[in-house]
Write a structure and sequence with these properties.
This protein is α/β, with parallel strands linked by helices and 315 residues long. The chain is built from 11 helices and 12 strands. The strands form 2 sheets. It has a 7-stranded parallel beta sheet with strand order 8-7-6-9-10-11-12, with helices on both faces. The longest helix is centred in the middle third of the chain and has 19 residues.
């Protein structure tokens, strides 16, 4: 008899339905995947692994035998914050396709800024026909804050497209062909030198509010910023001030403190902000379900739990 694997999610109805269709098919030879509300009491007691996407912590707590949970998202900050320290191990979704997808988005929106698209969009609104001098990628320095798997892939893609790339991380790292910095002094060195700053660091207690007034004032005159990490890393009021009074010229924002972004938020109408609806690196269902099936299949075959999140670091 196949084991039952609960699926727990408070994501949007469309996303839940997508996973409810894809997961049972991908795990058909391994386990029976059931939404939490369809579990019997015995199945809740016997479950040792669950698949989660923005789960209600009370539902996770209702599965007392859980050894680990497989997240369907790369970001696990809510899970680390809401699940008890002695609770199940948390395994984030590590999908190579996600790194490719993110690096593609970073390159696309870097080019958007590099080719001065915000200025031309504004000129179109004003019916202004005027070209501007184009700089080469080699003349543009891009600073990538956070060079884990997503950041490293993004930095490499930018480098391959001719940009001068700097990387920053909390601890020392090395990336081929890229100047890497670390720590407090390293962060300010990257901000001082970057024409475009790309934020890709994980959200932890240490990085919450990490980019505030002092950090944004340290940016180059007319620098631009892309935040594809998490909203709370960047202090919104400090960003608005840096856009209104310098030094920043534009911000591309895909993540926010509250999502969806409230209709009355000033980002919506600010002429120096491009708002995106958290689309920089969505989970690709077709590749993700194969990884989930491999992880859970391996667990039931050997008892091995995949590498889990370090609760102290938050990732």
């Amino acid at each position: 008899m196949k084991p039952v694997v609960p699926f727990i999610s408070a994501a949007s109805p469309d996303e839940r339905q997508l996973w409810r269709s894809a997961l049972p098919e991908a795990l058909a030879d391994i386990a029976v995947v059931k939404p939490f509300d369809e579990l019997s009491q015995a199945e809740r007691q016997q479950a040792t692994v669950a698949i989660v996407a923005n789960p209600d912590p009370s539902e996770v707590a209702a599965l007392p035998g859980l050894v680990w949970v497989q997240s369907l998202w790369a970001g696990v900050e809510r899970l680390t914050a809401e699940l008890p320290d002695d609770g199940p191990a948390i395994v984030r979704l590590t999908d190579p396709q996600m790194a490719d997808t993110m690096s593609e988005a970073v390159l696309a929106w870097t080019l958007y800024l590099h080719r001065d698209m915000p200025r031309y969009i504004q000129q179109q609104r004003e019916k202004v026909w005027l070209g501007h001098e184009l700089r080469t990628p080699e003349e543009r320095t891009i600073g990538v804050l956070g060079i884990g798997k997503l950041g490293a892939a993004s930095a490499a893609r930018l480098k391959d497209n001719g940009f001068n790339v700097l990387g920053w991380s909390r601890n020392p790292k090395e990336l081929q062909g890229i100047s890497c910095f670390h720590g407090e002094d390293g962060l300010f060195a990257v901000l001082n030198r970057s024409d475009i700053v790309v934020v890709l660091m994980p959200l932890t207690q240490e990085t919450t509010g990490r980019l505030g007034p002092a950090e944004l004032r340290a940016c180059k005159k007319d620098a631009a910023l892309i935040n594809f990490a998490r909203g709370p890393i960047l202090q919104s009021e400090a960003l608005l001030d840096a856009l209104d009074h310098g030094p920043l010229s534009h911000a591309v924002l895909d993540v926010f403190d509250e999502e969806p972004l409230p209709e009355d938020h000033p980002f919506w109408t600010h002429d120096k902000v491009t708002v995106l609806p958290h689309i920089s690196a969505p989970t690709i269902t077709s590749t993700a379900v194969r990884i989930v099936a491999d992880n859970i299949g391996g667990y039931f075959e050997t008892g091995t739990v995949p590498q889990s999140v370090d609760r102290q670091r938050g990732y």
